[in-house]
Amino acid sequence: xxxxxxxxxxxxxxxxxxxxxxxxxxxxxxxxxxxxxxxxxxxxxxxxxxxxxxxxxxxxxxxxxxxxxxxxxxxxxxxxxxxxxxxxxxxxxxxxxxxxxxxxxxxxxxxxxxxxxxxxxxxxxxxxxxxxxxxxxxxxxxxxxxxxxxxxxxxxxxxxxxxx
Length: 164
Fold this sequence. Notes:
It is built from 5 helices and 2 strands, in the order βαααααβ. It has helices at about 15-40, 45-55, 70-95, 100-120, 135-155; strands at about 10, 160. The protein has a two-stranded antiparallel sheet.
């Protein structure tokens, strides 16, 4: 007689992943829109227009860098869509890692997203290439760590039997 054991698999909590993206994305936006101009120069509108440029095109970057409602809306759409998408990936990868694993794994994935954004997507959006800096590396790592940590903190653990 063979003893059957039930194996269980933990499910990803997609709602917690979305919240991780929203909160991590907000931290990322604050750092990039308000701290980066202080460190790298420019003003908040330069960074807002930069975030809007994948949707509105390179023309949105033309001076003067002043308030433009269309650019603000486009920047928010692009930014939060990417933040949530990246957070869903983070959650899928780290969802069994616990809080420390979520923060550390999220930070590593944030670094990977930096590499993807600034070393491959610059082939499509070359105006992002000059933005490569230690500050952008740090804010991407911070985004991933916050998104991963928030995910793990909010995750409602649910398990389902594995069908063999």
